[in-house]
Protein 1
Amino acid sequence: MDRRSFLRTSALGGAAAASTTLAAPAYAQGNRTLTMVTTWGRGLAGVHDAAQHIADSITAMTDGQLTIDLKAAGELVGAFEVFDAVTSGQADMYHGADYYWVNQHPAYAFYTAVPFGMTAQELANWYYHMGGHELHNELNEIFGLKGFLGGNTGAQAGGWFRSEINSPEDFQGLRFRMPGLGGQALGRLGASVQNLPGGEVYQALASGALDGTEWIGPWADQSAGFQEITQIYYTAGFHEPGAGLSVTTNLDVFNSLSPAHQKVIEIAAAEAHQWSLSQFLSNNGSALQQLISGGVQVREFPDSVWDAFGTASAEVLDENMSDPLFARTRESMMSSMMASSSWLTASEGTYRAQRDRVLG
């Protein structure tokens, strides 16, 4: 048995053992309260909003019969401890970015973003209609979980830098915050990649512990205040072209709910996915203009850097293909992405180019 299989088997066994010691859910007059932990600091623009939106929707749709007690990062467990908290039964559910769990299984990256992967619409197409959710279920069952997409940031920016990036060599020794497989790809270009929770990024950048960071996009980045530290901003990145967020429940807890309440969680997650995406996209344009008016210098990576991103990303994805579930997930994602992209390019892509020409 290889190490990954051992870890997976151990995780499943641990989850099964934990199910016998799960804390009894809180009941009052027939109502039930579930504790949701998140990877987000309270108030982080967009991402915390998505978690709160789901919690509020579940409570409203059940008329208070099922209440979600939301705990932001650090209020019950740390941001990167929420996966273990839910698998062990310390908490009932989490809201977060699944690519934080690639050390548990690399296939978790696909449910947030992989480099040169899916846009937000392509992710939704795959997840809801082309096998993505079924593969997510298969992965989560290994760890005793039940998950759904529960938010999306849209395409994320390339990030904030103290100096311009003119060639792939400029990443050598650069201390940069980037999670997931995108961060692993950046590491292949010589960067010293850091994986920090969102609530810790500003201080790390301000203190000089980081030379640069990606976060989300203009609205969330402006809210975080990165423009106060550096004003070189790359607006297009390779790493998260449509980053999904997940709401995930301990499987024993989920199975203990009534079918109606299970469906409420599913519906609340799906509605939040679109609500969250619209929130980011509706705010990004005006936020970008405000950043530019404040002196932020918008940049694009040169083609040589994009080429290096592409080579490094392919290497990172290829090295995980020995895992059967990762391989099946990647193949499913690629097939769906190519099918969706061909039509979106031929229809919406052509229309938008002509619209901009005619109206511009």
Note: The two ends are 61 Å apart (CA to CA).
Protein 2
Amino acid sequence: MRLLVVEDDSRLLMQLDTLLRNHGYSVDLADDGKKALFQLSEHPYDLAIIDIGLPVVDGFDVIRRARKNSVECPILILTARERWQEKVEGLDAGADDYLTKPFHNEELLARIKALIRRASGQANPVIELGPIALDTRSEELSVHGKALDLTAYEYKVMEYLMLNPDKVVSKTELTEHIYDQDFDLDSNVIEVFVGRLRKKIDPENTLKPIETLRGRGYRLNKNLKGD
């Protein structure tokens, strides 16, 4: 999943960058509101974390302008402000949730996962498709109740597909959401990951969990049965 973090405190910005990367997220950074608006206009994000007290353009205005420009990703506000009126203003501007500084890292990570799930129409932390279950809390994929041994990027690919079950997802889109922006978009590494996932999920080739739509991308097979 690809996140944008907007924070003018350079120390906290670097701490968040390290925390999120260590938990498997691809992260872009901005330290003022103008840079944030540019990033939001140029790249597709799964979630944005935005501080309210930003230089150049404040966080409230960043959120309003982003929503006006049809940015639909979930937005989590970070604020050091305790007044409830300012939290309400942030939510009214278009944010989805807020977290008051200082915060526990575990709470931030839990809120990120919950917001991304809800944006995909998934309230339950365990996403199921036939015999396949993806637990977003433990980051574990299982088939018929048996956990699979996946690499970090194999999990990221399957997580993105399961959070977008009705969508044909191109290789470019997958690459943008699981890698940092300087990754080679022409690489065939996504094909390799999908091939490995098919073998691990469906070694007997009976489920056919991931469909390939030639020239378009990949889509989950929604006709999987639980038996």
Note: Residues 170 and 214 are 10 Å apart (CA to CA).
